[in-house]
């Protein structure tokens, strides 16, 4: 700090600065500080799980930050093998009554074998998401000593950076993927002229891509999947200030440049476009801007979403260390509240970067996947994973990022209607455990995960949730309600009467991926009437009824669905006080199973709430504790779901404990979630869970700080969103609410709860309401 003799003028200026800083920091949607929102590392990535992701929703890269060589592993969201295909088992429809009869008579193993033989489809056309390829920079041998190395990702600007000093020259690389210009931008610079020399190549695994080098541009193309997939084109252009650029075989050589900008574009024919023409048009447009304009436009586009939410829990000295060291320290018990803030905003960053309007939804790895065969094909698992990807969309003020998923559901409808009719002889729409961008809804594989017809029904919850936050009636009429109505029609026709209870049950079906022991000791998975099915159906039917009222349509259907709800099998509590997962209290071979499906009604459903069903809340708590005591939560996404469960149970300490466990046990050095291996759903689920700890609105009230843990003594979260169109700023200190500021975006009445205090605000659209800890207006 400079030692300057103070003067009156300097003191006045200092006081003015302090006042302005305090005033600005107290405003709504204050801007996050740079150092608070940096992932940074003191060394290059040694493997993919240490690299840093950038993305514009469609085009992504993983930044390794090497010194002698740099690798940018590339992805474009539509680089998929496969094609549309039908593979319903032609014997399924006829086998359905027989399978049901076997299950009703307790012959579970026989029913499972029959379903495997007669109901599983033959998916002969394989499909997988794939890498676009690699952009490689080779700088040659580095003989100088390397100092001041830093590799970072600034969440505030969505710009990655690599910097170091080699000998007496400081080098910098900046990398971002621009949504406004649809290009990956890499800027290389040095603090001394003529210091940049390297070779540039574009490559792709499999050695089947065609690579052409012309002047200062490389074009790489391939028909992926041995011709059963999309045609893709990637092209990179080298723009240099100083030095020379020349073709060197299949690469470009840059010699003694001052600054170099690389522009990379990519396209496929997934939507019928010519990828050669599309990628060229993207590149031509990007070249017209200088680097500063590209960067400024990118940041402005990104920040209009990211800056909607600001979150702070304070910081400790732990925040001064590199991110990987902080994560390691947390595994050893170090408290690092700022790392939780960073992790939370990283989740929002990933959603903005992997799911933009007009594109495909985020897959199992968002958009970032290496190689030609990523785990589980990086597809769209719809038995929780893709749903979890979008749990944070509405609550963290990223409603637009929800749209790719909502449009994906609409695109599934034609095949889903065909599958329902051909496989089951039922009207409406059905989808099973997974899908892909070719929109298949048939099922295949083992009944343990495949004989589950609730994929579309669960996904349709998102169609209603988007409306609850936005109250966009045009969206509901044109997109949301048709998805819900079709799924509800299937469910209404799918249910059958249980001969013993005379209640309606779903089946044949499973509790996703779990098994049970039959009375004679066999391991089985299918029943008539798994609890989760009924919870999903109850949610869907209620939502469809409400949507039909909003739109004033389908009165007859509404009455029909109301009648079905009266007959639907209720949620049952077993003799040990836990919610039953199946129709009977079967012994569980895996009592710590990763799926906790029979708590759907607690989260993401809203049937089990403190306000309406305290007895089921207690049964849910026992269910959750039992799972955890037997090793549950051992995968990242499962642990993330558990955070949300405990938040809904108003148990801040347990929610926090599981958040810490997620960071300690299921988080990779670059903060990616691991199943293992990497799956992005845990990142999204945890960001949603942290929000649920601080704000809930699923039970007809805007509830403030419902699960605030002791560890978060003071802090704030500004800009999160409640159902009914309320944007909420919450400040707290000494573990209690300090004040809340609510923006009414739609003008609805707002019922607000904090602990045992409840008030109702009659709001006006566009007006803000500031309340103190006693919920009195200020």
Automatic annotation (TrEMBL):
Tagged with keyword Zinc: no
InterPro entries per record: 6-hairpin_glycosidase_sf, 6hp_glycosidase-like_sf, AFCA-like_C, Alpha-L-fucosidase, GH95_cat, GH95_N_dom
Domain Glycosyl hydrolase family 95 N-terminal: 39-272
UniProt keyword terms in alphabetical order: Hydrolase
Glycosyl hydrolase family 95 catalytic domain ranges (all copies): 291-694
This protein's record includes keyword Hydrolase: yes
Pfam families: Glyco_hyd_65N_2 (PF14498), Glyco_hydro_95_C (PF21307), Glyco_hydro_95_cat (PF22124)
UniProt domain Alpha fucosidase A-like C-terminal: residue ranges: 696-765
Coiled-coil region: none
Source organism, top-level taxon: Bacteria
Single annotated GO MF: hydrolase activity
Origin species: Pontibacter silvestris
Protein name stated in the entry: Glycoside hydrolase N-terminal domain-containing protein
